């Protein structure tokens, strides 16, 4: 049971982005948890219901992934009607959603992130190779859940990868491939939780591996020595704070064969599904799913 009165809480879920399916799963899990904790909560899907219904709420738990949820739009709306909400504010959400903007900020601050270029129509595979080498990822700048991401290792893959990303967002980047292991650092109440190592059986940690396959292996806490963990916690928080993020989130990173850490991206509204990494890490830190949900709700300062 919740130890304090949160008032009436709306859980925003679904929406109209290409991550709608995941948002519905996250939102339903959060809503079920809040009701179990005796919080006066209800779900609202902006695809079918007016946002004006939020005016009757005391707080909003945002589970909208992707466009309109993580790009600052809903945060701006809630700021205007003066209703507290979970997670980062308008500006930080916009930066976190946009891989090009966030990577440019990190580059200026000398926060290690893989080299990248913005792709323009007509740029050739050979031109990209001059900057990034012959193996790289092509990514839609404003998308999550690995939608619009392709691995490119030969010229024949280049054009199709660009077109796939461009269908998702008209800002497309190419990012140098880091050869090493993939990890994530969940953050709660602006403090790092246990690091999770991700070992996908697919070519990389794509949409299928994230949400549909059951053979992706997760090691939590990751088997890293304390010195490296301290370095990652410090770097991850620096990357998170550099964008102005707050409350909770997730910093994805890679470690190459020389033990160099590369920040890949920040996720300001992580998934809360059965496959999601923040609940896994929180559990390792002694937090049940219900306790985690209430702690995230606490980031909506009333």
Automatic annotation (TrEMBL):
Pathway involvement of the protein, from the record: Cell wall biogenesis; peptidoglycan biosynthesis
Mind telling me which GO cellular component terms the entry cites? cytoplasm
The Gene Ontology biological process terms listed for this entry are: cell wall organization; peptidoglycan biosynthetic process; regulation of cell shape
UniProt cofactor note: Binds 2 magnesium or manganese ions per subunit.
Q: Which residues bind Mg(2+) 1?
A: 252, 265
- A GO MF label: metal ion binding
The enzyme's E.C. designation: 6.3.2.4
List of catalytic residues: 19, 145, 276
Localization, UniProt = Cytoplasm
**Pfam families, alphabetized:** Dala_Dala_lig_C (PF07478), Dala_Dala_lig_N (PF01820)
Major subcellular site: cytoplasm
What catalytic activity is recorded? 2 D-alanine + ATP = D-alanyl-D-alanine + ADP + phosphate + H(+)
Family to which the UniProt record says this protein belongs: Belongs to the D-alanine--D-alanine ligase family.
Q: Which PANTHER family match?
A: D-ALANINE--D-ALANINE LIGASE, D-ALANINE--D-ALANINE LIGASE B
Protein known as: D-alanine--D-alanine ligase
Q: Which organism is this protein's natural source?
A: Methylophilales bacterium HTCC2181
Give the gene name.
ddl
């Amino acid at each position: 049971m919740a130890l304090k009165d949160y008032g009436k809480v709306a859980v925003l879920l679904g929406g109209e982005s290409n991550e709608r399916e995941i948002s519905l799963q996250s939102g339903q899990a959060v809503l079920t948890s809040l009701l179990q904790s005796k919080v006066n909560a209800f779900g609202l899907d902006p695809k079918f219901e007016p946002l004006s219904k939020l005016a009757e709420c005391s707080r909003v738990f945002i589970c909208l992934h992707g466009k309109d949820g993580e790009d600052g739009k809903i945060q701006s709306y809630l700021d205007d009607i003066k209703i507290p909400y979970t997670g980062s504010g308008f500006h930080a959400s916009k930066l976190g959603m946009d891989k090009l903007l966030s990577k440019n900020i990190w580059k200026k601050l000398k926060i290690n992130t893989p080299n990248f270029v913005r792709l323009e129509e007509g740029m050739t595979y050979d031109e990209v190779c001059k900057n990034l080498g012959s193996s790289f990822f092509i990514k839609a700048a404003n998308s999550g859940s690995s939608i619009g991401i392709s691995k490119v290792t030969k010229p024949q893959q280049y054009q199709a990868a660009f077109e796939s990303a461009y269908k998702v967002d008209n800002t497309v980047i190419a990012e140098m491939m880091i050869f090493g292991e993939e990890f994530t650092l969940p953050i709660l109440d602006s403090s790092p939780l246990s690091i999770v190592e991700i070992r996908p059986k697919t070519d990389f940690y794509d949409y299928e591996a994230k949400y549909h396959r059951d053979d992706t292996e997760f090691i939590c806490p990751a088997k890293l020595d304390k010195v490296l963990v301290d370095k990652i916690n410090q770097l991850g928080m620096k990357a998170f704070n550099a964008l102005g993020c707050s409350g909770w989130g997730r910093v994805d990173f890679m470690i190459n064969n020389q033990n160099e850490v590369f920040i890949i991206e920040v996720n300001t509204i992580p998934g809360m599904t059965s496959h999601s990494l923040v609940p896994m890490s929180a559990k390792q830190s002694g937090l049940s799913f219900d306790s985690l949900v209430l702690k995230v709700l606490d980031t909506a300062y009333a």
